[in-house]
Amino acid sequence: MFGAVAIIGLGLLGGSTGLAVQEYLPGVHTTGYDADPATRERARARGLVAQVCETAAEAVAGADLVVFCVPVGAMGAAAREVAGHLKPGVLVSDVGSSKQTVLSSLSEALPGVAIIPAHPVAGTENSGPDAGFASLFGRRWCIVTPPDDANPILLTKLVQFWEGLGAHVELMNPQHHDLVLAVTSHVPHLIAYTIVGTASDLEEVTQSEVIKYSAGGFRDFTRIAASDPTMWRDVFLSNRDAVLEILQRFTEDLTALQRSIRNGEGDRLFDHFTRTRAIRRSIIEQGQDDARPDFGRSDHNGQG
Ligand SMILES: NC(=O)C1=CN([C@@H]2O[C@H](COP(=O)(O)OP(=O)(O)OC[C@H]3O[C@@H](n4cnc5c(N)ncnc54)[C@H](O)[C@@H]3O)[C@@H](O)[C@H]2O)C=CC1
Ligand SMILES: O=C(O)C(=O)Cc1ccc(O)cc1
């Protein structure tokens, strides 16, 4: 296991990682840095890591593992700040929601350094240093995307690190990761951003009616559409090709449903909804629904 871990970016993911390491891997020393001074202050107050440093260079100086927990569009700039300050033999990783562009940004900024990106598929609509909690990763998937030439010892250590925080680990190539996450996460977020915007732009329906009568479906969309604007702007710009590919298919499928409604094709609608209901049921059977089982303590702060 790594002796010391540095976390760059102390928001939801960085804070949760720091808290989880301190709780579940107590022998591992944690340092951290965030570009925002107010976030560093909150990180100190909450004890997100053992030592909050004033520079990224100081945070990574003694680290065996450096985890970048910044928006995917900031990975390159954050990595450039630590170039030349890393310990020999260090492993650099991240938690970004897209993987191909992150791998190239980190590799460009840190030539010759071992880099193995990862994506814990765990989060909430909240962000910032007050949003993190230690059990975030419990029984959630963490997708690790090693480059072809990844050092197998460092890869094993990274897998053990995420397993130590309670995650199930799966290996995947970055390109496939980006396509899978485009359909399971990125496009669904875009759909939520769209429908909530559509409802708020309606002239015939007032804002207070939207709030008052928001039934389950719309409420769920508003939670997702409250997610961090910087993070999601970066996700869509960085995973552009896969998102556009899935959006194209989605639009075609939506048009087919639209046609069924216009033509009164009840059987087609019924068959489609029956198929999608089965998918939801198999997710629940595999224990992957949102009711997080009892990994760790009850320190989940009720968000998400
Ligand atoms: N929010 C979520 O549910 C999930 C997010 N992710 C990924 O995790 C990463 C972080 O997301 P969150 O923690 O949600 O965001 P966040 O907004 O809570 O935290 C990001 C932090 O990075 C800091 N930062 C930005 N640029 C920096 C730089 N150059 N150097 C140091 N600090 C810098 C910001 O000040 C902020 O505190 C993103 O790449 C996101 O795609 C992955 C899984 C879930
Ligand atoms: O809050 C939710 O429902 C999420 O979907 C959280 C989330 C956001 C981004 C990720 O890359 C992984 C998980």
TrEMBL record:
GO MF annotation: an example: NAD+ binding
Assigned protein family: Belongs to the prephenate/arogenate dehydrogenase family.
Gene Ontology biological process terms from the UniProt entry: tyrosine biosynthetic process
Pathway of action: Amino-acid biosynthesis; L-tyrosine biosynthesis; (4-hydroxyphenyl)pyruvate from prephenate (NAD(+) route): step 1/1
Catalyzed reactions per annotation: prephenate + NAD(+) = 3-(4-hydroxyphenyl)pyruvate + CO2 + NADH
Name of the protein in its database record: prephenate dehydrogenase
Compositional bias ranges of the Basic and acidic residues kind: 289-304
SUPFAM superfamilies recorded: 6-phosphogluconate dehydrogenase C-terminal domain-like, NAD(P)-binding Rossmann-fold domains
Entry-linked PROSITE patterns: PDH_ADH
Domain Prephenate/arogenate dehydrogenase, residue spans: 3-291
Keywords: Amino-acid biosynthesis, Aromatic amino acid biosynthesis, NAD, Oxidoreductase, Tyrosine biosynthesis
EC number: 1.3.1.12
InterPro entries reported in the protein's UniProt record: 6-PGluconate_DH-like_C_sf, NAD(P)-bd_dom_sf, PDH_C, PDH_N, Preph/Arog_dehydrog, Prephen_DH
Location of region: Disordered: 284-304
